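Hi everyone,

Forwarding the result from last night's run.
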Amino acid sequence: MTAPRRRRPLPPARRPRARFLAPLTAITALCGGLLLGPGAPAHAADDHPAFTIQDARVTESSGLAASRLHPGVYWTHNDSDDGPYLYAIDGRSGRTLARITLSGIGSPRDVEAISLGPDGRLYVGDIGDNLDGTWPHVWIYALPEPKLLRDQTVRATQYTVQYEGGPRNAEALMVHPKTGRVYIASKRESGGNLYEGPAKLSATGTNVFRKVAPVDLWVTDGTFSPDGRTLALRGYFSGTYYDWNDGHPKAAGRLAVPLQRQGESLTWTTDGTTLMYGSEGVRSEVRPEEAPVRSSPDPGATKPTPGGGKGSGERGQQGDGADSGRSGAGQEDGDKEGAGKDTGGTTGKAVLVVALAGAALYGVRRMSGKRAGK
């Protein structure tokens, strides 16, 4: 009887070698750098960490504003079909610290943006128009930022808004931190326009917003730097920042917009160092990126103190006020088109990452195969 043959060990060439894996490791690191951009400084990771919104009621976070009175807290709201509510979110745990019910207004229709003015009021933009020019007017609600983070009802002032040239769809509302003037950027895939409100909004008349500059971006939100010198606008995949230039914005560069499920919100932190990017969706993530330019801190912002509040699971009271109406139809007379669709840099980086990683893997396998064939 012939003895069973002993299996020969695999030749060394078939075993993974560190020198074969080293190029793959290096290229993988390079890919990560290309996708994420320059390494985030310590302040982005420590002072302004990424967080996930935990509240199951927040399913369409469409606006974001850094609190001035409560360091590390961010105000957000749902897109539509939620009611007159704002949510105060802890920027470390992602828990809801308070839900604010707005009273004294009609029924919100399509709330898309929130911004904090130098007067200490939160400005909420009920400015969405998904039919791209159906509503003859939209609204802005303004209320004082609550000093206490607890579920409560706060009375707001309602402002009626119309655009020069007819109705527009818009998702970005920004209040200048020095002048208090309100700006809205219209949303069109081919590029829209920046509109400027009156020097002082009227609660009794109609506030006409006038065109001041074209925007070559499919804008989903925007924010001013705390010193008012820079305007940042984001789209789904890319963004642009502008030198404000005393109300005559001039494009200065591109933003490092992170890949997100449906990126629709943006705010500058009150210390002027970081841009926070938010997204719609259940348990959506808010991510920090280093600001393209450093801004002087917001002088009215409260300095950070240790500790944080607990989340609140209670629902606020229903706000009062009658529906201000949804009737009327309008026509888009054509925003001036910008430089083209929002196809921004992040998508291109992602494609490059995949290509480099694939090439690296192919190279490693080819090298291993050659050695095994000797």
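The helical segments are 18-36, 42-46, 345-372.

Cheers,
N.
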